[in-house]
Write the structure tokens for this entry.
Amino acid sequence: KLLLLILSLLPASFGIRNLGDYYPFNTTLKEGDYYLFWNFSKSDETIQFAVRVKTTGWIGFGISPNGQMPGSDVIIGWIGEDKSYFHDRFALGRFQPPIDPIQDWYLTEAEEEDGYTQLEFNRKFITCDEERDREILEDTSRIVYSWNDNKPTVTQDPDGSESYSINQHQEQGSTSLNLRGGLPTPPDIPSDAQTFTVNVEEVTIPSTDTTYYCKAIELDESIRENVKYIVKFEPYLSSSSKPYVHHMLIYICDGLEESDLEAGGNCDNGAVSDRVTQCLASLLIAAWAVGGSDFIYPENVAFPIGGPDDKQYAVIQIHYNNPNEDSGVVDSSGITFTYIDSPREHDAGIMFFGHSVISLMAIPPNADNYTITAFCSSACTEEYLPTDGIHIFANMLHTHTIGIGLEFSVVQQTSCPSAPEFQTRDEQSQIIEKNLHYDFNFQQANHLNREIIVRPGDTMLLNCYYNNTVRTETTLGGESTQDEMCLSFPVYYPKIAMSQCTSQPTFENVSSFIDNYVPEEYQSQFREIKINSDPAFVRATFDLLEWNDKQIEGLYNSIYITGNQYSICDVEDHFDVTEESLPNICCNFEEENQCTGTKPTPCCERACTATPDGACVIRISLSLLFVLLLIITFV
């Protein structure tokens, strides 16, 4: 017997309305059967959903902790003979979820026509029901959905309440979405906007696990002669090859020759010229990864491209992921850009930020939450950011298959003159993007809830979290999907000269790990590892250990806690390298609790540990940097 419920008295209306006219975001959960639409309001902190399902029975929809039913915050609704039924429920297990005593989902419309049922409903992002509701944050949500073609049986109880007999679902599924990553009111694309596409042409995807394919083109003459302003980009994918396209990056550059434009090829084996591969260190104009969709710039921002004084060529790099080594798959994927002739208030830039892609970014087996940390040093931001800073308004996070979460934040030095000690403190002042429910199969450039300003002297910090318990061997950093990355692509304004900011450990303290945690018979082999060692040798050496908790912690501490890092700032004609320790954060970012109203304690009033050492900045050439990296060893 169910005593607590919400009954919607909304009758089914005639003339079912077109949901696409009312909701800017939509996805197909099952072709022909289940369609999801949504929008949200930042000011009201409310999200509106609509579902269109091929059924005249009941419909289920909800938010799950992991894509499974237990622990899911769900609704079940249907249209009866004389009224609609809709209930907020919580799934305690793999059985009919009971009605939630506190109803936080609200039905606004219910319609049925031609064998389809449409329900429209809403709820707050955060309901403050911690026991039976799931928060809808700015990270990846696991969506669960189900339906049954039979209407539930409604029984009128003696006390006036109703009970419901609901048949088990006939169909069910789950998917990952970022429900709050788009623009709730995207600007209209002008009718005179034009497009161009950077894509590969009829490429037969190699029957190998991982291929990075590069193709260079010359920009259209109209773009080369006059500056244009990109307001949108979207993936250009064919259905047959879409499952093999893991990610795409588009760069623009100068210095290519006619022969570079004739054909594309593997980026890494000499099939394309050094001029083409060097373009991959130039200006990034778009990034897309599996699961992503269109990216629309805000109405006051556009990405400038072209003109006689700008770069004249574009290079697309596509990562093909072909784990089954299928043959005969042909691909013509790319990215389509929509542009206008007139500038907007701000010129945008996209930064390549994160950990250098090196094999020594090693993640031991048995580690269930191993952290890799990357940063863009305060020296880099001091040198290349304008006085008023840059405004980050969107971002895309990126790891591979064992990545389970990422956190991208800003660290600034806070002065605490009245504090008895540690009067200069590193404070994590803002979270740019945090996704602790990361899904490798759903990677999207997300608009932030608010713009985050990074000022000169601030440090940008990226923590990537990995679960390597599903593998029996060490996972290395690298380009293959079976390797790992720790990257982020912030979209910001105003555009600056620094196109990339990456970091990697100096590894000078790894000797302490070897001395204390590696059995003596393996120590000499560990000391032979260099930054350019063959990945197979690195993995075989690491796999000599069984990797217990103390060894995992010891490796992390020697690299990221006590060891220094190189922060590499990439500009047009040189690299700046900052060597320093990672920020030793005294105060992690805290927000006011929306449910209790509790405000965070100011940083200067909190207990704090020691501050990091200062940084040493040296400007070096690319060739000198390469030599420097070659001599890094585990000694």
